[in-house]
Amino acid sequence: MGNMSYCRFENTVRDLSDCQDALELLLVGDLAPLSHLELERAKDLVSICNMIVDCVKDHSGYSDEEFRSKMEDCSEKVINQVLSAANMHTRDKDD
Q1: What is the pLDDT of residue 93?
Q2: Which residue, 32, 45, 54, 69, is the most exposed by fewest CB within 10 angstroms?
Q3: 37 has pLDDT over 90
Q4: What one-character-per-residue DSSP string does 3-27 give?
Q5: Cα separation of 53 and 67, whole Å?
């Protein structure tokens, strides 16, 4: 069963953080090799994360270069700004 919509991000961020830690350990050689299936899911995860960043970038209003520059300077601020604005827009539609 999938996450309930009201806690999907809360639950997923903990799991994603755990996956990040595992990938960092794998990349520096401090983690046992992953099974074939786990390796495939790790690749899928990185691909999905990349698609999420691309989606945020596409809706940010910045050019690719501006977005890259802003992400390097203050990624949390840019992500917060874009997602908060999108959330407010969605909330406005519901009202």
Answers
A1: 61
A2: 32
A3: yes
A4: PPTTTHHHHHHHHHHHHHHHHHHHH
A5: 10
Q: Cα–Cα distances in Å, from 68 out to 30, 72, 76?
A: 30, 6, 13
- Give the DSSP letter of residue 60: S
Q: Which amino acid appears at position 37 of this protein?
A: L
Task: For residue 46, give the nearest of 74, 22, 64 by alpha carbon.
Answer: 22
State the chain's mean pLDDT as an integer: 84
CA pair distance 73, 59, nearest whole angstrom: 19
User: What is the tens place of the pLDDT at every residue in 46-89?
Assistant: 999 999 989 989 988 889 888 888 777 666 777 777 767 778 77
User: What stretch of H or E contains 73?
Assistant: helix 64-94
